[in-house]
Amino acid sequence: MYTDVKRYDGNFKDAHNYLVSTTDIAGQWSEPVYLNSSGFDPSLFHENGRQCLVNLLWNHRAGAPGHEDSRSCFGGIVLQEFDEAAGCLIGESRFSYAPAKA
Fold this sequence. Notes:
The chain has about 100 residues and is mainly β. About 0% of the residues lie in helices and about 45% in strands. The chain has a four-stranded antiparallel β-sheet with strand order 4-5-6-7, with no helix packed on it. Strands 1-2-3 form a three-stranded antiparallel β-sheet, with no helix packed on it.
């Protein structure tokens, strides 16, 4: 898994996340499979025989008018099921960890 980060400045950290695979680490790798554009540095998580993508959620409202109580841009950690056969995320994402309200 990797994140294609085009810029690192500013308060916007939602970059494109991709998955590549191989049966032999020294062999041919698959074409990148686009997963989402939520946060960065995703990982696969195995849960009850299913594969899930786990990644952070960015809080774009932190520090905006009406949201001064938001001290952090961290919006939580979400899980979404990955269908290996279809090569894509399926279903809705759900919180694995949500930060406490300030």
